[in-house]
Design a protein that fits this description.
Chain lengths: ~400, ~230
């Protein structure tokens, strides 16, 4: 009987069903958006900056001293590359120093890289917007970001001076030429990092004069950045590498950038908060409709009670009506929601219009929707819960009716 | 045998603010198998009296015994069960559940009584035959005329095998043919099954066929006229 009652006022029931379906859709959309945004941030950060796993000298993270190198880095890198889950390794020379143009000087970190290896680990090679990627054959080329170029007021082919400490503790300065300008889309990263050739930095750090640099030098490596085949196995791979390299510090992106871990863990709670807010809105919509349905049927309910339908049955009938509406609506909402997420997960949603703000937070322009699979049971469950909750008041109202008064009402 | 006894039944609506005295001490005794009309002008308390007898409403004061049950001593839930088992109601309108067919409406009370499917089917069919709606069993109320709807209501009231049928102005919305038809059916059931019928009405056509006419004026029994025994007008 509840089922048939729903279809008495087709329009009204359809409105509620639509509202619930849209609510579910909205919950999934918001969750997809939030998760997608965070995932995008995470993936960009992994691709541009932190990689999946980084290896340093075990003292390096505390002191950031150029002397704290990874001994025998070349061999270690070759060794790591053989591991099954490792996709690529880049050995980097890191120097903290100052970059100066004729106008301005700023503190930065110089990443000395092997261009070929680095291209496999980070996306920097693809982020060049002007000029070209580092060329092994040029002398002292440097990549800086468009933001930094603006600050320093330099252009492509301008000269900049890097100042830093070498291995002997001497302050050295060297001229570099800007051969490429990059833009990763993340302002904090772009303003802090420049890329130069590892070979150039090695020569400068070891204090060899520019004229006599033909002797091969042991590479001065501070960091090995690793990209994995399967990011899910990041922890086990880390443990494996750590056991092979007991004297070095092997860290996952979660350990290196705790903010990423925070985002990752907050994704779920944010989705849940969206869900709760939307369900709260839905509750009142459902209560309103069902209350109407009850008030409209006062006489009929009175008659039912007069002929012997007891309160429990009336209560159950009204509750069932509400729950059935929810049950009808849920599949539509879920279908609509998952279709939207599937589509936007593939093609993304382009937020270029707001990209400046997003860039300030280091987020990307295009957001590819993603959801935690848990949402597919969380949403229906919360809708069911909401429907039951929303049905209580109208049902209670219904059983409070006095049959005589109910029948009399015109 | 006296099946309905009321003593000094008083009903005051809204006793705190503007008290309206609907009944002022009604003493009544009704025998098993009566076919009785309660008449009187609007506001004389007909419906109130009927509701009190049917356990839909409670008097402010007085004593009510129906079929041996002192119904004032029953709780709300016991009252619902009492109505379900012993009383069949036919109201002026809105008798039927709009989403159910005629047959399902008749079966509904039996469903509440937890009767078996087979018994329900059989009795619903029997009753709808009896009220002459054999070919309308699977129609919904909105596909039936007013008279047909009231006949379904009578069938529904009978389905539970009640001891009494209380009908509150059952013919108020019906034309002459339908009224005659409905009265024929009720009179016949009264005669054949011995069910006690009590109407509230101010329809002369109903009054003409009642065996006993109780007239209420200002909440009191003004006249109690027994027109004879046996079913009238059949």
């Amino acid at each position: 009987m509840s089922w048939r009652n729903i279809w008495r006022n087709r329009t009204r029931s359809l409105v509620v069903i639509t509202a619930i379906a849209l609510g579910i859709w909205a919950a999934m959309f918001m969750s997809g958006f939030a998760t997608g945004m965070v995932k995008g941030y995470l993936n960009d950060n992994i691709a541009n900056a932190v990689s999946h796993i980084q290896i340093h000298n075990s003292m390096y993270s505390k002191e950031n001293d150029v002397k704290l190198i990874i001994p025998d880095a070349k061999a270690a890198a070759n060794n790591i590359e053989q591991k099954p889950n490792v996709k690529a390794v880049s050995v980097r020379t890191l120097v903290n120093g100052m970059i100066a143009s004729s106008k301005e000087a700023r503190g930065i970190r110089v990443k000395g890289i092997d261009p070929e290896a680095e291209a496999k680990v980070s996306t920097i090679a693809k982020k060049i917007i002007e000029g070209e990627y580092l060329d092994q054959n040029k002398r002292n080329p440097i990549l800086i970001s468009n933001r930094l170029a603006e600050r320093l007021d330099v252009k492509l082919r301008s000269k900049v001076v890097l100042t830093f400490q070498d291995l002997n503790g001497e302050i050295i300065a060297a001229a570099f030429r800007v051969t490429g300008i990059f833009d990763t889309g993340s302002d904090p990263f772009d303003e802090m990092n420049v890329f130069a050739l590892s070979a150039d930095l090695n020569r400068l750090l070891s204090g060899v004069s520019e004229e006599t640099d033909s002797t091969p030098i042991q590479p001065i490596a501070h960091e090995m950045a690793i990209i994995l085949q399967d990011a899910q196995l990041v922890d086990s791979t880390r443990n494996e590498l750590q056991s092979v390299l007991p004297n070095l510090k092997v860290e996952t992106y979660r350990e290196i950038s705790p903010d990423l871990q925070l985002y990752e863990s907050q994704m779920e709670s944010v989705s849940l908060i969206y869900l709760v807010v939307i369900m709260l809105a839905l509750i009142f919509g459902i209560i309103n409709t069902m209350l109407m349905a009850v008030l409209e049927r006062i006489r009929e309910l009175g008659m039912l009670m007069a002929i012997g339908m007891n309160k429990r049955r009336v209560f159950i009938m009204i509750m069932l009506e509400t729950i059935l509406i929810g049950l009808v609506a849920a599949p539509f909402g879920l279908l609509l929601g998952s279709a939207t997420i599937a589509y936007l997960g593939k093609y993304g949603i382009n937020l270029s219009a707001y990209s400046e703000t997003l860039q300030m937070y280091g987020m990307s322009n295009i957001i590819y929707f993603a959801v935690n699979p848990d949402i597919y049971w969380q949403v229906p469950l919360s809708v069911a819960f909401t429907a039951v909750l929303a049905s209580l008041y109208p049902a209670w109202k219904a059983i409070r009716l006095k049959p005589v008064e109910a029948i009399r009402k015109i | 045998m006296k099946v309905i006894i009321t003593k000094g039944v008083t009903k005051i609506y809204d006793p705190d603010r503007i008290p309206v005295e609907a009944l002022r001490g009604v003493d009544l005794e009704i025998e098993e198998g009566e076919f009785t009309a309660i008449v009187g002008p609007s506001g004389s308390g007909k419906s109130t009296l009927l509701n009190i007898i049917g356990g839909l409403d409670r008097p402010t004061e007085g004593y009510v015994e129906v079929g041996g049950h002192k119904i004032l001593e029953l709780s709300d839930n016991q009252l619902i069960d009492f109505r379900k088992e012993h009383i069949g109601f036919v109201f002026q309108a809105y008798n039927l559940i709009p989403v159910l067919t005629a047959r399902e409406n008749v079966e509904f009370v039996m469903l509440l009584q937890n009767r078996s499917k087979k018994e329900r089917d059989q009795r619903a069919e029997e009753l709808l035959h009896a009220v002459g709606l054999k070919d309308k069993m699977d129609k919904r109320p909105n596909e039936l005329s007013g008279g047909q709807q009231q006949r379904v209501a009578v069938a529904r009231a009978l389905a539970a095998k009640p001891d009494f049928i209380l009908a509150d102005e059952p013919t108020a919305n019906l034309d002459s043919t339908s009224t005659a038809n409905l009265l024929d059916i009720m009179a016949e059931l009264n005669k054949e099954e011995g069910i006690t019928f009590i109407f509230s009405t101010h329809d002369q056509r109903v009054i003409d066929r009642a065996r006993r006419v109780i007239t209420l004026v200002d909440g009191k029994v003004a006249k109690d006229e027994v027109k004879g025994y046996g079913v009238m007008g059949v």
